[in-house]
Amino acid sequence: MDSKKKMLNSVAEGEKEKDKEVKIDEGNAKLIEWEDYQQELARFCSLTSALNEAKQKKLVLQQKLQSLIQVEAESLNRSNELDEMREKLESRKLVMGNMSMHSKVAEEKVKKQEEQLSSEIRSLLLAGTALSVASKQLQEANGSLAGERGYLHLKTLQKSLRVRQQYMVSQVSLLYPVKFVIGHPHEQELESFTTSIKSGVTAGSKPLDQGSLTISGLHLTVIPFTKMSFFTDKKEVQQSSTALGYIAHAVLLIASYLQVPLRYPLRLGGSRSYIRDYAPSIEPVSSDETSNSLVLTNAKPVEFPLFIEGQDSTRAAYAVFLLNKDLEQLLNYIGVKSLGPRHVLANLKELLKTILSPEYIDT
């Protein structure tokens, strides 16, 4: 392209110089002799022919120049179009790059979802197999229940077990009979009545207080546990300790027959029995840094005596409370409510009466 422009410029400059020479010749017109006329005429003809040829060449060059200018313009237009197309192509490349990034991210998400879906499908297959196994087991269980050794057989076995439990408990009732005391003082009746009213029980369904009941002919009185002194009757204290030993033995036997693990286990020793509490105890400990800090001790179960002689009355009263909690546990196991925390013998009698009733076998 540059060489073409140079050539066109040189041609144009040559034509300009020729035009200048012609003008100079016209300005310097001179007279010629006739003898030289032929030569001048021939020279003039040759000059005109040369001028015409130059004009024709000029026209040809102008045409070529115009065509070259058109070609140059078209090439410029084409280059501009190419630049625009390059810019569009770059923008398309950017768009395609973004789309490829998005497609990669979407592909990764799809792969993760496929993995999750495959894991869920595997879990569903496992669950389906487990469900089919469970359904087969259920069908087998339904078949066994509907067969000869089915529900009726289980009811029969349960009834025979209840009969056996009732018989064993009846032996306990014969070994440690809990009976009413006829003609006990009026003060104890009044105390029993007021206690039942405070606990929310009506007079028509007043529970039997432990002062009006005996176990194997022995009373269980709470007075030695609360008002123990030097002048307290030792015989009454020994009778209460023996009665507590009888109650503990009866509770332990009934719990073993009913196959109920007691919340507060018993360690039998006759009138020197103990009851264990597995709950952690909090005791105050004094030190140099803190005067009243609390220390939680849970190394081993604490035993509380079911007798008062030679023991702390508070620990003995707490032991009676725990024994009554074991009775409440057995009563709740057979579906009966407790008569209260101060009715040990009454709860034992209610337990024996409920187990020995005909309704216990049918339930």
UniProtKB/TrEMBL annotation:
<feature type="region of interest" description="Disordered">
    <location>
        <begin position="1"/>
        <end position="20"/>
    </location>
</feature>
<protein>
    <submittedName>
        <fullName>Vacuolar protein sorting 38 isoform X3</fullName>
    </submittedName>
</protein>
<dbReference type="GO" id="GO:0035493">
    <property type="term" value="P:SNARE complex assembly"/>
</dbReference>
<dbReference type="GO" id="GO:0000323">
    <property type="term" value="C:lytic vacuole"/>
</dbReference>
<dbReference type="GO" id="GO:0005768">
    <property type="term" value="C:endosome"/>
</dbReference>
<dbReference type="GO" id="GO:0000149">
    <property type="term" value="F:SNARE binding"/>
</dbReference>
